[in-house]
């Protein structure tokens, strides 16, 4: 390989064979690195539309370091990030990228700088998984990489969370303002689209593997486990956003916002997120905020009361089952309840009777599992997202959820907002 050094200026001149003055304004402020000569695609990133960036050259590690250094979590453009992830295979292997990201990922969260660095790496990984989707699933290096930090961060999903990350008052205020400014229908549509992408990847056999705890089915339960985890995280997200909001008026606005999003999710036939949001608002740490709830307008309380009916467990969740049965496919069920039904059939009926297979039990399980096939039918009827500024804002919010999953911390925040009488 030719080990020529490629600098920023040389890369610009080689691109069009000239030395235009119009590029001089930016050439001096961008760092350059001495690197082995690599294919042009990995060294030159073109300027596109208004979201222009200058050429970045360097070793793969230095380019990644520069990318993470300049990465902004609220940046909707992501052009350089997108280009890097689309072309990295030209100049480095997937294993090299995994190792490089691990090198950039602090092992400890002591200090705001280390935490912010982690959030940047997570932001990059979330974008990477969105771009490559199933192409990353079977790569052994990816599987090993995704396990790192698995107890505190969700890598392999279509959104990423950070747990109990300390934010300043100004950061919390900005987060709340951004969330309050988001269109509720678009937010519900984004939640529905992301849930659908996960739900639609689930195979019927996954429910059987999960219920039977088959040792051979571990690799076949990934989609199901991710969707179940997603439901929990949406619930925790709702709780966290409300309890991190120190302003009473804004907290009331947040409750109204989440009630509307839950109603829209139900209207869009996504009972997975609808359930999650309703349960998040119904948790003890949120429901005890009497002063806050008293200021919620009556019409929103009425909407919430109607929504609560679908989570009523009485008569074997009759309200939910009736409502869901009336919905035409495609639709997204509340997956924990579906798993509960299958588990009840499995544990409540013998597999063998007089050394003969109890086929009636198998039929009941299969009949329940086939609900997945029914819900996934008529896929063209699923809501498709239009690209708009509002949708982009929603995607940014949903792809990066700030979550506190410590119940003691949540109750401390709750009592701090409204002390016990």
Automatic annotation (TrEMBL):
The keyword Nucleotide-binding is annotated on this UniProt entry: no
GO annotations of cellular component type: plasma membrane
Xref: CDD domains: RasGEF
Domain Ras-GEF: 183-420
Keywords: Guanine-nucleotide releasing factor
Chain ranges of the N-terminal Ras-GEF domain: 51-184
SUPFAM superfamilies: Ras GEF
An annotated GO BP: Ras protein signal transduction
Classification via Gene3D superfamilies: Ras guanine-nucleotide exchange factors catalytic domain, Son of sevenless (SoS) protein Chain: S domain 1
Molecular function per GO: guanyl-nucleotide exchange factor activity
Name of the featured protein: Rap guanine nucleotide exchange factor (GEF) 5a
Organism of this sequence: Oncorhynchus kisutch
Originating gene: RAPGEF5
């Amino acid at each position: 390989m030719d080990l020529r050094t490629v600098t920023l200026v040389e890369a610009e001149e080689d691109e069009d064979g000239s030395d235009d003055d119009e590029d001089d304004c930016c050439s001096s402020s961008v760092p350059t690195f001495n690197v082995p000569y690599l294919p042009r695609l990995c060294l030159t990133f073109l300027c596109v539309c208004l979201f222009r960036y200058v050429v970045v050259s360097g070793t793969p590690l230095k380019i990644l370091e520069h990318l993470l250094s300049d990465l902004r979590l609220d940046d909707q453009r992501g052009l350089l990030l997108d280009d890097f992830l689309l072309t990295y295979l030209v100049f480095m292997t997937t294993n090299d990228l995994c190792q490089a990201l691990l090198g950039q990922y602090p092992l400890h969260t002591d200090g705001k700088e280390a935490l912010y660095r982690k959030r940047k790496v997570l932001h990059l990984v979330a974008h990477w998984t969105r771009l490559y989707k199933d192409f990353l699933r079977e790569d052994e290096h990816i599987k090993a990489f995704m396990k790192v930090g698995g107890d505190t961060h969700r890598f392999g999903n279509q959104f990423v969370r950070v747990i109990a990350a300390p934010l300043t008052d100004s950061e919390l205020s900005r987060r709340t303002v951004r969330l309050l400014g988001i269109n509720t229908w678009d937010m519900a549509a984004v939640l529905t689209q992301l849930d659908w992408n996960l739900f639609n990847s689930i195979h019927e056999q996954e429910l059987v593997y999960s219920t039977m705890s088959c040792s051979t089915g571990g690799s076949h339960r990934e989609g199901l486990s991710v969707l179940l985890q997603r439901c929990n995280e949406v619930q925790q997200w709702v709780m966290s956003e409300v309890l991190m909001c120190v302003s009473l008026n804004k907290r009331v606005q947040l409750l109204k916002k989440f009630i509307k999003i839950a109603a829209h999710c139900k209207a869009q036939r996504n009972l997975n997120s609808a359930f999650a949001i309703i349960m998040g608002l119904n948790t003890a740490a949120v429901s005890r905020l009497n002063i806050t709830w008293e200021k919620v307008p009556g019409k929103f309380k009425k909407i919430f009361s109607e929504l609560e009916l679908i989570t009523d467990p009485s008569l074997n969740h009759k309200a939910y089952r009736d409502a869901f049965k009336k919905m035409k496919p495609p639709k997204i069920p509340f997956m924990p309840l579906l798993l509960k039904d299958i588990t009840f059939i499995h544990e409540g009926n013998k597999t063998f009777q007089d050394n003969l297979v109890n086929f009636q039990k198998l039929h009941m399980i299969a009949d329940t599992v086939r609900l997945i096939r029914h819900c996934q039918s008529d896929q063209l009827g699923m809501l498709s997202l239009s690209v708009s500024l509002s949708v982009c804002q929603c995607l940014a919010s949903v792809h990066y959820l700030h979550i506190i999953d410590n119940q003691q911390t949540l109750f401390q925040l709750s009592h701090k907002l409204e002390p016990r009488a």
